[in-house]
Specification:
The structure holds two protein chains of two kinds.
Chain A: E1 3-14, E2 17-29, E3 34-38, H1 45-52, E4 60-65, E5 68-69, H2 75-85, E6 86-89, H3 101-110, H4 117-130, H5 146-158, E7 164-168, H6 176-191, E8 195-200, H7 203-206, E9 211-216, E10 219-220
Parallel strand pairs in A: 3-8, 3-9, 6-7, 7-8
Antiparallel strand pairs in A: 1-2, 1-4, 4-5, 9-10
Chain B: H1 3-19, H2 21-59, E1 64-69, H3 79-82, H4 89-95, E2 101-116, E3 121-129, H5 131-136, E4 139-144, H6 149-154, E5 158-162, H7 163-170, E6 179-182, E7 185-195, E8 212-215, H8 216-224, E9 231-236, H9 242-256, E10 263-267, H10 268-315, H11 317-325, H12 330-369, H13 380-406, H14 410-413
Parallel strand pairs in B: 3-8, 5-7
Antiparallel strand pairs in B: 1-9, 1-10, 2-3, 2-6, 2-9, 4-7, 5-8, 6-7
Classes of the chains: A alpha/beta, B alpha+beta.
């Protein structure tokens, strides 16, 4: 079992009102699985992804990655888990505009500590080659097409060899052709054994996954 | 942190700084001015101190003391006072033999005398002196010659007049070789003296420019009488011998006067030193004030840095969120902004030190164009302090924005992803 979340709740305080976003979510993900989390906006799917990706912490419940209880981790320890266990792909790519493609991809390795620049560079270049972006390494993100940017973002998510690849509406900002291309990339990564969690509201995108987890009103339905 | 990491942080910071050159330049200017004023103030303070010391040496009599005549007194009351004989030229000659004495000079005051020149007549203080004394007093011969030992020996009727007296008595005509009458006695003007300018004080300011100097032997013979002199100035050959020269000299004169102390001693070297100590104290106070002002400039520069960093943090909120999502810890984010702040401080302080040095050079050049030699040595402690202070400012004023950045929530920072 790679991911094991049990009875996860998340409650936000808005002024004096408690707003429950998650109300007891149980979810397990096996190594190598490709799952999609879907649900309408406001259903709590984003909150779930934030907690699964260690960007946020649950109000209650337990969450383990690779057997390590990460639900109780804070600050520096949580940053370490994000860096080593999780790779993020965002809807808006979230690349650093002033860094080159290669520097963007190598960035997570910088926060791992103790890895020299040439080694980080080597790994980034190897991954960019795998994703067919070798001819773009010296470019800035704004010199690339949307599809290329998203593939750079995927390379950045994978460079640290994380346990889980998390994608949040990865095709949301792409035209259909580029979107299909990115989804093909996910399929290929899945075939190679990567564990992928894809969050989307689009049923056609969700259909590419092996398993669909539907969230509604803060619970899995 | 390894040097490689520090270097990488600095180069990333440099890239960020270059990304908005105008803003960075404005930020830098505050630090630059602060550091420049610290360096130039520190150097100026050191320079003023050295110039003041040089001035005091120029006015004063290093290693010299004066025996000042005390009597005989017409209002003598006690038996001892009635035995006062006063200082004589013979005492002066005897003092030359004292061990360690470099020179002995006579002074004889004739008081205010009516002096008649071709242009004007007026009452002028007339003083009997010799060449060595004029030199000690820092009087420079601007034309003609000084009062020579031969003049002194022959009781020559020659006069060296102060620069201001030359103007009053002769106007624009050359006074050398011309005759003046001092209290009815004819004298030949042989030289004009002017005091060396003392620092920023104009030469005319000094009373020595308003006097007339004649051989002291003349005043002694025809005014004071009986070979008496008003003062005897004794200089010592070595600093170390000064105290013993003073002691031996006064003992000798007392003995020659039958044990009667009819003179007093004025230790002009000590007076000079106490003047110097006082000036030093005043300058020290000024240094403090100048340093504080320069420090305030640098702190103001720091506030500029602070606000620019806050802007930078606000602008880079999304970037901070992304970096955190990729695994950057609070410490990593903090380093990112502290590196930017420190890099700005380093560049600013180095440029400021350069600017301060340039300012000093310019001041020297301006001084030189006015014929003044400003002694402004570069203050190395000042430079060190300026750089250290600028770095301190960089850390102190970088801390809050860096911390603010580090504490951002990644999800909110990315705009809810």
């Amino acid at each position: 079992m790679l991911l094991a979340a049990a009875a996860l709740t998340k409650t936000y305080r808005l002024g004096r009102v408690d707003v429950p976003a998650l109300r007891g979510v149980d979810l397990t993900v096996q190594r190598g699985e490709f799952i999609a989390i879907t649900g309408p906006s406001g259903s709590g799917k984003s909150t779930l992804m934030h907690i699964l990706g260690c960007l946020d912490t649950p109000t209650s419940g337990s969450y383990r990655i690779d057997g390590e209880d990460v639900g109780t981790l804070r600050g520096k320890d949580l940053a370490r888990v994000r860096n080593r266990k999780v790779g993020f792909v965002f809807q808006t790519f979230n690349l650093m505009p002033r860094l080159t493609v290669e520097e963007n991809v190598a960035l997570p390795l910088k926060y791992r500590g103790g890895m020299a620049r040439p080694e980080r560079r080597k790994r980034a270049l190897a991954l960019l080659e795998r994703l067919g972006l070798s001819d773009r390494v010296g470019h800035r993100p704004d010199e690339l097409s949307g599809g290329q940017r998203q593939r750079v973002a995927i390379a950045r998510a994978l460079v640290g060899e994380p346990a889980i690849l998390m994608a949040d509406e990865p095709t949301g900002n792409l035209d259909s052709k580029a979107g299909a291309n990115v989804l093909d990339t996910f399929d290929e990564l899945h075939r190679m054994g990567h564990t992928i969690i894809l969050v989307t509201h689009d049923p056609n995108v969700a259909a590419r996954a092996e398993r669909i987890v539907h969230i509604s009103d803060g619970v899995v339905v | 942190m390894r040097p490689g990491e520090a270097l990488e942080l600095a180069s990333d910071a440099w890239r960020e700084i270059r990304a908005h050159p105008m803003r960075s330049l404005l930020t830098l200017s505050g630090i630059v001015f602060g550091a420049a004023s610290l360096v130039s103030m520190a150097s100026l303070a050191t320079g003023l101190r050295e110039m003041a010391y040089a001035d005091l040496r120029a006015i004063g009599f290093p290693r010299s003391y004066a025996l000042r005549d005390f009597g005989p007194r017409s209002d003598a009351v006690t038996a001892t006072e009635r035995r006062h004989t006063g200082l004589r030229i013979a005492d002066l000659e005897a003092l030359r033999a004292v061990r360690g004495v470099a020179s002995v000079h006579g002074r004889a005051f004739a008081g205010e005398q009516l002096v008649v020149g071709p242009r004007d007549r007026r009452s002028v203080p007339v003083e009997g002196a010799d060449a060595g004394y004029l030199e000690l007093r820092n009087l420079r011969i601007v034309s003609g010659r000084t009062i020579t030992p031969v003049d002194v020996m022959h009781v020559a009727r020659v006069a060296v007049i102060g620069e201001e007296m030359r103007r009053d008595l002769f106007g624009t005509t050359d006074p050398i070789g011309r005759r003046i009458r001092i209290d009815g006695v004819g004298f030949t003007v042989v030289g004009v003296v002017a005091p060396m300018p003392i620092g920023f004080i104009p030469a005319d300011f000094s009373w020595v420019a308003r006097r007339i100097y004649i051989p002291y032997t003349f005043v002694s013979r025809y005014r004071l009488g009986e070979g008496r002199v008003s003062q005897i100035i004794v200089t010592a050959r070595e600093d170390a011998e000064f105290a013993s020269v003073m002691q031996a000299g006064s003992a000798l004169v007392r003995q020659r006067h039958g044990g009667v102390e009819d003179f007093n001693l004025r230790n002009e070297a000590a007076d000079l030193l106490s003047d110097y100590a006082m000036a030093d104290g005043i300058l020290g106070g000024w240094n403090g004030v100048m340093f504080a002002i320069a420090g305030v400039t640098l702190v103001v520069g720091g506030i500029g840095l602070f606000s620019v960093l806050l802007i930078s943090v606000r602008e880079r909120v999304r970037e901070i969120g992304i970096r955190k999502a990729l695994g950057a810890s609070d410490g990593d984010i903090m380093q990112l902004f502290l590196a930017e702040s420190l890099t700005l401080a380093v560049i600013g302080s180095v440029a400021g030190v350069g600017g301060g040095v340039a300012l000093i050079m310019i001041t020297k050049l301006i001084g030189a164009s006015f014929g003044k030699d400003f002694v402004i040595p570069l203050s190395v402690p000042g430079i060190g302090f300026a750089i250290a202070f600028a770095l301190g400012v960089g850390i102190v004023f970088g801390w809050y924005p860096a911390r603010k950045a580090a504490k951002l929530d990644p999800i909110q920072a990315m705009g809810g992803v």
